[in-house]
Amino acid sequence: MKKARRQRGFWKELPILIGIALLLALLIKTFLVQAFSIPSDSMQDTLQRGDRVLVDKLTPWFGSEPQRGEVVVFHDPGGWLDETPAPEPNAVQQVLSFIGLMPSAEEKDLIKRVIAVGGDTVECHGTGPVKVNGKALKEDSYLFPGNTPCGDKPFGPIKVPKGSIWVMGDHRQRSQDSRYHTNLKGNGTVETKQVVGRAFTIAWPINRWSWLPVPDTFDQPGLDKAVAAAPAALGLAGAVPIAVWRHRSGARQTTEDTASPASPARGSGLDARDDEL
Length: 277
Hints:
alpha+beta; disordered C terminus; Umud Fragment, subunit A; 21% strand
């Protein structure tokens, strides 16, 4: 008799437990960490097709902004991805997407590496290298083998507006990034308000688990000189944003939008799909 009562009690409590679990999943996805799957090759070899990365959504709430060298997920600024309509999701898919247990058909996100931030001047000519504020970046640690820094798409010099970033894929010949959108509003840059957060680790598959550090080249002396001069001239104290997971390493990294090596075609569908692990 007691056993039967315990069983009935369990089944009564089960919906409450499920509700609490779903609420926690929603809160974690909204405010703390969200998982995204990588469907293409534009960030190879750092990220491979099928990888799942965890994205920090907490620190932006405290004023942290994207920093050079970080891998970030951001919403399509407009015109970067095809407007191919996604299949209409059913009711169950809509609920699971809302709580983060399935990719959302409405969200169109991309994942790239931040090369320059607001106030920087970025350029790349001939076979490279990419220069930020006149300083050459040494990209061997993360650039896809055989790629040139410009990826057959020279650009600049371009002054990145305040509150924006210049992004590029690690697989330069398969990434339709800032270089290919200089004809759009912002001159190829992405406003920081479009950034979802920083991808700080590869969480799946298990055999590829690793951090996504900021390469050492982005810490070279003089890189910040041009940016720091403006606030100093105005007599303002620069506020250094909170930066977490700023691990530095020379580890090779890469994956994301699929396109032809010579001229990347515009991606269709999601470039980085959100998908809770």
